[in-house]
Amino acid sequence: MIGKVCARGSDVRRLLGYLFREGLAGERGLSAPHTDAHLIVAWDGVGGLEPSRLAGGGRDLGTVAAALNAPLLAAGLGTGEWQQARPVYHLAISAAPTDSTLSDEEWADVVAEYLHRIGLAPRGDEEAVRWVAVRHADNHVHVVATLARQDGRRVCPRNDFYRAREASLAVEDRYGLTRTSPADRTGDRQTSRAEQRRHARRVEQRTERGKPAPAGPDREVLRGKVRAALAGANSFEEFSHRLSLDGVLVRPRMSTLNTAEVTGYAVALRATGADAAEGAEPVWFGGGKFAPDLTLPQLQARWCREGTAARQSATTAGASRRGLELDPSERQVLWDATGQAIGRADQQLRAAAGGDPASLAMAEAAAVAASEVLAAVGRLTERSGAGPIHRAAEVYDRAARGLRRRPPIPTGATRRTRQAAGGLRGMEFVRRADTRQLLQTLEQLSRLSLALAGLRE
Description:
The chain is of the alpha+beta class.
C-alpha cells in the first residue's frame, strides 16, 4: 500500500472536478481510466454530499466543495489568501495490482487510518478537519481535505510523508496486502509527471529529426553524472570541473554572510543541437533534488574528512595522468588498486553480518565508498549515461546509504577505495586490453552487491 502525499493546492472544486472526471485522466503519469467515481466516506458520513449528475454528464460539485471550504472561511482565511496558503490537502492511496480488491467499507477504514496517523482527523476527534474520499478505480482512492479544523484552528501537518508510511504498514498487516518497506529518509527524489511528459516530447521531437533520443529525463541523467563526478573527488572545484567536462552547467550558491563561501549548488544539462539553436532554457536542479546524500553539506562531509595526504599513493600517482597518457603498466596499477579496494569492502560487509554496531558502521562506510567505484565503472563503459551498469549503480547506491542521512565514517580503507574510484574516473575510457580487468572488476562488484544485500536483510 502506497500513500502518496501530493502537492497542496488552493482550489477544492478544481481538484474534485479532476477526481470525478470520467475517462483517461493521466493518473500517476499513465493513462489510467477513471470509472464510476463516487464518494465512499467523508468526515461526517456521505449523506447529501455525493455529487449529482448533470445533463451534460458532469457532476454538480458545488455542495461538497462549499462544505469543505466552510472551515477555511470560519478560520478567517479569505479566498484571496488561498493561492498563497495552499490549504487544500491531497492524498492518493494505492494498493498493488496483485492485491485483492478492497470493498468501499474496507477502503473507508484505510482512509481513516491514514488521516488518524497523519494527524488531520484523529479517531474520536469530532472537531477535526473536513475531508472526503473519492474512489474511481479498483485499487486506489483519493482523499481531499481542507487544512482548518471545524473549531476554527488552522492545521499544518508535520512529517506527513513518514506518518503516511507508518499507516501503510499498519493497513498492510490488517488486510494482508503486499508489504512495502518502512520510511528511512534515504530515497531518491522521483521524477515528476511534468518531467516525464517533457522527456516524452523531446524523444518524439528527436525521433522526427532522426536524432538519438535522450537517455532519460533530465533529473535522472544529471543524477548519474553527479555521482560519476563525485567518484574520488575531494573538493567542490574538482567536482564541478568534472561536471563541466561532462556537459553539465554548474551554478554554485554563495553564502550571504561570506560571499567567498559556497553553501550549495545546482546543475543543468547544457543545451546542444536544435535545443541550443532554439534558445532552450536550462532546467536547474539542486543537489538535494536528486538524493539526500548529494547535497553540498553531505559531499563536504566526505571531502573534508578524506584529506589529501594519501594522494601520494601509486593509485593517485597514476591517476594524475589521463586517458591516452596512461601506459599499460599505469592502467594495470589502477585496476589492481580497484580490485584490492573492492575486496576489502567485501570482507568488511561480510564481517558485519554478526550485527556488531561498530562493524556495521565500518561496513556501511565501505559500502558507500564502493558505490563511487561502481559509478566510475559506469562512466567508463556507458558514456551515454544509461545502461545496465548505470541502473545497477543506482540500485546499489540506494542500498548503501546510511539511514537518516548519516554521513559515512572515514577510514583508511574508505580513503583508498575513493582513491581507486578517482583513478578509474581518470582513465576516461576502457581499452580493448582492459577487457579482462574490467570483467574481473564487475565480478567483484557483483559479489559485493550480494554481500550488501545479505547485510541489509
